[in-house]
Specification:
Layout lengths: L2 H5 L3 H6 L6 E3 L4 E2 L8 E6 L6 H16 L3 E7 L4 H9 L4 E4 L16 E6 L2 E7 L4 H13 L16 E3 L5 E3 L7 E5 L5 H9 L8 E6 L6 H10 L7 E5 L2 H6 L7 E5 L5 E6 L4 H12 L5
Parallel strand pairs: 3-4, 4-5, 10-11, 11-12
Antiparallel strand pairs: 1-2, 1-5, 3-6, 6-7, 8-9, 10-13, 13-14
């Protein structure tokens, strides 16, 4: 998954950065931003006229959506031109959204068209820059349809169990972790992950922070950086190396993705992407309560 996906893992969070943005359909009806967080979506960014590949990609999207019925096709364009109106009449099964200020594409760093984005329940699944063909468009929708869903489905339940290795190489089963705790899927090449680590220092007074990383990812330099970040932490933190099967079990599509477990071992909240320290602290406190540790 690209760094662009890691930096903007939540589709709704991206549009929230431009709170004044207003979207409308091609016929002028309002398009509610909340709809971007509902179900499986395939969003194609285009311009018309001037982009013959965009017209082809729109037709391919419509054909793919007809074959994969649980994916809703959307087309986003900066203006509702006569050419776009004509294309929409030709392909009535696709909803066209006018985003005059590029409030959706801009924060996602989408500046070339056509670009196809797939998402489920507000979580970005994939971004494919053009050019691509009809087979690739269909593959993108099939992959989305076959995905297990967003990590938020784990809220309110005990999470999957797993075994990881700590800094000494010892195996630690997830059931051995003191409650409450936070499982944070972490990547060293993800700036948001380091931001989230820094935001978690004070959070350790409420719950232990457990960073989950791929085997061999942390170098001595990375370890030193983490130790410096958590040097003044009021509570415990640790790092566990986990394999890709754990990521899949937790439906993690990008990092950082954090799971807050309460004193019963139940996932009280799932947070995708980084948060400001004060907001993150309040999010954890809401789940685990004051003085949890």
């Amino acid at each position: 998954m690209s760094a662009r996906l890691f930096a903007a893992a939540m589709l709704l969070a991206v549009t929230a950065t431009a709170c004044a943005a207003e979207f409308s359909t091609l016929d002028g009806a309002p398009f509610e931003r909340a709809e971007l967080g509902q179900g499986r979506l395939a969003i194609l960014f285009v311009i018309a006229p001037g982009c013959s590949a965009c017209e082809e990609a729109t037709r391919w999207l419509a054909d793919a959506a007809a074959a994969v019925e649980d994916v809703r096709p959307l087309v986003v364009a900066p203006e509702g031109t006569p050419e776009l109106h004509a294309l929409a009449r030709e392909i009535p099964g696709v909803t066209v959204i006018v985003d005059e200020n590029w409030a959706l594409g801009g924060p996602l760093d989408i500046w070339t068209v056509p670009t196809l984005l797939t998402a489920q329940d507000g979580i970005i699944h994939d971004i494919r820059d053009g050019p691509f063909d009809s087979v690739e468009a269909l593959d993108a929708l099939l992959e989305l349809s076959a995905s297990q869903g967003s990590p938020s489905v784990l809220e309110g339940a005990a999470p999957p169990e797993f075994t990881g290795r700590d800094a000494s190489g010892a195996e630690i089963h997830s059931s051995e972790l003191p409650l409450p705790h936070i499982l944070m899927f972490f990547s060293v090449g993800c700036p948001g992950c380091w931001d989230m680590a820094e935001a978690s220092v004070q959070v350790t007074e409420l719950a232990e922070v457990v960073l989950l990383v791929a085997p061999g990812q942390l170098t001595e330099e990375h370890w030193a950086r983490l130790e410096q970040i958590f040097a003044e932490a009021p509570g415990p933190w640790r790092v566990l190396e986990i394999d890709g099967a754990v990521r899949s079990a937790y439906r993690v599509r990008g990092t950082p993705t954090s799971f807050i477990l309460d004193a019963r071992g139940i996932v009280g909240a799932v947070v995708v992407g980084p948060m400001r320290p004060s907001f993150w602290y309040e999010e954890v406190r809401e789940v685990v309560g004051e003085g949890a540790r």
